[in-house]
Specification:
The complex is a heterodimer of chains A (about 270) and B (about 300). Chain A has about 270 residues and is an alpha/beta fold. Chain A has helices at about 5-10, 10-15, 50-55, 90-100, 125-130, 140-150, 175-180, 220-245, 255-265, and strands at about 30-35, 60-65, 70-75, 110-115, 160-165, 185-190, 200-210, 215-220, 245-250. In chain A, strands 4-3-5-6-9 form a 5-stranded parallel beta sheet, with helices on both faces. A two-stranded antiparallel ribbon of chain A has the order 1-2. In chain A, a hairpin with a 4-residue loop joins strand 7 (about 200-210) and strand 8 (about 215-220). The radius of gyration of chain A is 21 Å and the shape is globular. With about 300 residues, chain B is of the alpha/beta class. Chain B has 2 domains: about 1-75 and about 280-300, no CATH class; about 80-275, von Willebrand factor, type A domain (Rossmann fold). Chain B contains 10 helices and 12 strands. The longest helix of chain B has 23 residues, at about 5-30. In chain B, about 40% of the residues are buried. The chains are: A alpha/beta (about 270), B alpha/beta (about 300). The interface of A and B includes residues 83, 193, 204, 217 and 219 of A. Strand 7 (about 200-210) of chain A pairs parallel with strand 2 (about 35) of chain B, so a sheet runs across the interface.
């Protein structure tokens, strides 16, 4: 199964009726997926009478609506994403975006969302166009980017948001919930480069990617406290997105595409 | 504190200030070798690193360098130093009132025992003499740096009898003490002067010549009967205090043999000390060098060198 199929299967509105329910869209262009026992609420037009006769119980044909998807993505490109253990976290984020837009086929549209706006319509027809588009003077602002997404994207859009979410304060929880209700949202939370422990000991001079500087002594006590705090933060972020009805995953520095696939349960990251 | 080379100190302190500023600037400079992290505020909140350790190391460097600079500037500190060639006269009262038994076994016996403790506590080289006094004063042992000989002379102190001539004893000690050097008079008595010179006048004279008189009053507040008489042996504390104050010494009271022993032992230690300017160059220089070595080793062993 591909990310696109996973998106089609789990489209948010039908999913409220139970995963794998028949789509409610009319018209041609449906792709058969499976047969399963009829459940109350299934469209009677989808009952497979031949299969019902063979099994003796009502059987429903589950199909996927072959519709054009709108794939949108918000990527945190702030300086805090430009650090990492072996390479910038942003590289992994871009890989995830490539995989995301790479899932687009046919008439699907690919839209980058930033604080300044969205990919112009002329560039939305290809992953290449969306990936190559960056508005001038773009400065990442998570709140503005999410508001732009809510205002500019059509209902039902599959929205991917990738970031370390340092800017995500509590006031944005309501925005996340509204986005979760409106779109098929997926959040990738960047795993801290030092998730497995600080590679430091003794005197440390630390430079903040977004400013700030400190020099301090880091011993075993500090390393243990940091490790616990990083894990707690990641768990907390994942929990916040899940509460807002977002699909969640963890973006690992090693491989952004695999991290995205893992968020859909398609591969082990 | 005074320094022999104020110019060295001035330039040295200027160097310390420049060093402190440079250290701070180097510690704060941002380099490509610094570890880059997404969010410093999160790191500080998460790890709660001990920022005081680098600051303590910085302070140690600066203080150590300051001490080194001070060391080469020839500092002299006024300190209490032991006197090796001091002179002390112990004046022991042998008047009739000293036979009172309110201090066990008698005031006179307790005074002898305490004088022995004083001699034991005095540093080698201190010359000690003994004067006993009743109706008049006499030298039992002249100034002698052989402490065992002086202790042996304590046995020659006559039995208590007669009046109390404190002023005569002080005058005799003033005559017997050398004209210069560290000089002290210890007066062990019950303080009721009743014949001879005025002790206050002699004490003032001694004070004017930098000879403090340390007085030790012996006897209980209620006193005791003098054996073989109906007379009550008392203690004149006010008088003893005035002798001490007049000479720049101090007064101590002993109601029993133990207190007397302790008071004399303490005097043995403090009367052998004198305030003198001491060359502290070596101490400061060694302290500064050790501080710098400690700072270097600490910085090296605790991890990355700042």
């Amino acid at each position: 199964m591909t990310i696109r199929e996973a998106l089609l299967r789990a489209r948010r509105r039908p999913r409220h009726l139970g995963a794998g329910s028949p789509t409610i869209y009319r018209g041609d262009g449906y792709e058969f997926v499976e047969l399963r026992a009829y459940v109350a609420g299934d469209d009677v037009r989808r009952i497979d009478w031949a299969a019902t006769a063979r099994s003796g119980e009502l059987q429903t044909r589950v199909v996927l609506e072959d519709v054009a998807l709108t794939l949108a993505a918000v990527l945190d490109e702030s300086p805090s994403m430009r650090v990492g253990r072996r390479r910038p976290l942003l590289d992994a984020g871009r890989e995830a975006l490539q995989a995301w837009f790479g899932a687009a086929t046919g008439e699907d549209r690919c839209i980058r969302v930033t604080a300044q706006g969205v990919t112009p319509p002329a560039l939305q027809r290809s992953a290449h166009g969306a990936l190559g588009w960056t508005p001038r003077g773009d400065r990442f602002d998570v709140a503005r980017a999410l508001r732009t997404a809510r205002a500019a994207l059509p209902r039902g859009t599959a929205l991917l948001a990738v970031g370390d979410w340092y800017e995500l304060d509590d006031s944005l929880d309501r925005e996340l919930a509204e986005l979760g209700a409106r779109f098929d949202c997926t959040a990738l939370v960047v795993r801290d480069p030092w998730y497995d422990g600080l590679p430091l000991g003794g005197f440390v001079r630390l430079r903040g990617a977004e400013g700030g500087y400190t020099r301090a002594y880091v011993g075993p006590r500090e390393r243990a406290a940091f490790r616990e705090a990083v894990r707690r933060r990641e768990r907390g972020l994942v929990r916040r997105f899940e509460l807002a009805n977002w699909r969640t995953g963890v973006l690992r520095e090693e491989n952004g595409a695999e991290s995205l696939a893992a968020a859909f349960g398609l591969a082990r990251a | 504190m005074i320094v022999d080379h104020p110019l060295r100190l001035a330039f040295g302190l200027l160097g310390v200030v420049i060093f402190a500023l440079l250290y701070d600037r180097l510690a704060r400079r941002v380099t490509a070798r610094d570890l880059a992290y997404s969010s410093v505020p999160f790191f500080l909140e998460a790890a709660k690193p001990r920022g005081w350790i680098p600051r303590a190391l910085q302070t140690l460097w600066i203080v150590a360098l300051g001490a080194l600079v001070l060391g080469i500037s020839g500092p002299h500190l006024t300190m209490l130093v032991p006197v090796r060639d001091g002179s002390v006269f112990i004046c022991i009262d042998t008047s009739g009132s000293m036979s009172s038994t309110d201090v066990f076994p008698t005031r006179a016996q307790a005074a002898k025992s305490a004088a022995r403790a004083f001699i034991d506590e005095s540093p080698q080289g201190t010359r000690i003499g003994i004067i006993s006094f009743a109706g008049s004063a006499s030298v039992i042992a002249p100034l002698n740096s052989d402490h065992q000989a002086v202790i042996g002379a304590l046995d020659a102190i006559p039995l208590p009898n007669g009046a109390t001539a404190i002023g005569d004893a002080l005058k005799l000690s003033a005559q017997m003490l050398p004209a210069t050097g560290h000089r002290v008079v210890i007066l062990i008595t019950d303080g009721v002067n009743n014949t001879g010179n005025d002790p206050v006048e002699i004490a003032q004279w001694l004070g004017a010549h930098h000879v403090p008189v340390y007085t030790v009053g012996i006897g209980t507040p209620n006193g005791g009967l003098i054996p073989g008489t109906n007379e009550q042996a008392t203690i004149d504390e006010d008088a003893l205090r005035s002798y001490a104050e007049a000479s720049g010494g101090a007064y101590a009271r002993a109601e029993n043999a133990t207190q007397l022993h302790d008071a004399l032992a303490r005097l043995g230690r403090i009367t052998s000390l004198t305030r003198k300017p001491v060359d502290a160059s070596l101490g400061f220089a060694v302290g500064g060098a050790l501080g710098m070595l400690l700072a270097f080793l600490a910085g090296f062993s605790l991890g990355r060198y700042p």
